[in-house]
Amino acid sequence: MIEDIVVQRRVAPLGIPAPASLRAWAAAAREDAVGEITLRLVDADESRELNRDYRGKDKPTNVLSFPAESPIPGEFMLGDIVICAPVVAAEAAEQGKPQRAHWAHMVVHGVLHLRGYDHIEEQHAEVMEARECAILASCGFPDPYQHAK
């Protein structure tokens, strides 16, 4: 069987949930959407480089999503998600959240971006946040926005 949620780890595993957990959270957020997802876990340098090159922001960020633009005929790709492990750890500590809950949130957030959700406009942000909360609740996690300081 070909794995349709691939985890690539380019950073030490300290504090990073097991690949099976990452896949389960991505699958929950994918819902009925079809397509392969790659979760790439990176350090601050790689996150900064990607954020600079693709978003014009010269700093590491928690999560980047790259929806598939032109899938190969017969193959279905949703896209790639890049999560910066040091940023996720720092944010969890700053916000007083368990790291595992914040990791789940970043995975769900990234997958929803692949599915076309965004949070640029307030109305869209409300829809996306509500969807995140519902998915995270189905995975046993509390509302991530209630813990934000």
Number of strands: 4
Structural class: alpha/beta
Q: Could you describe the largest sheet, including whether it forms a barrel?
A: 4 strands, mixed
Share of β-strand residues? 15-25%
Spatial strand order of the main sheet: 1-2-4-3
Distance between the termini: 43 Å
* Shape field: globular
The poorly predicted ranges are none
Our Rg estimate from Cα atoms comes to: 15 Å
InterPro entries: MetalPrtase_cat_dom_sf_prd (IPR023091), YbeY (IPR002036)
Enzyme class: hydrolase
EC number: 3.1.-.-
Protein name: Endoribonuclease YbeY
Describe the fold and architecture:
The protein has helices at 19-30, 44-55, 85-95, 99-114, 122-138; strands at residues 5-9, 36-42, 63-67, 77-84. It is an alpha/beta fold and 149 residues long. It has a four-stranded mixed sheet with strand order 1-2-4-3. Helix 4 (99-114) packs across helix 5. It is globular, with a radius of gyration of 15 Å.
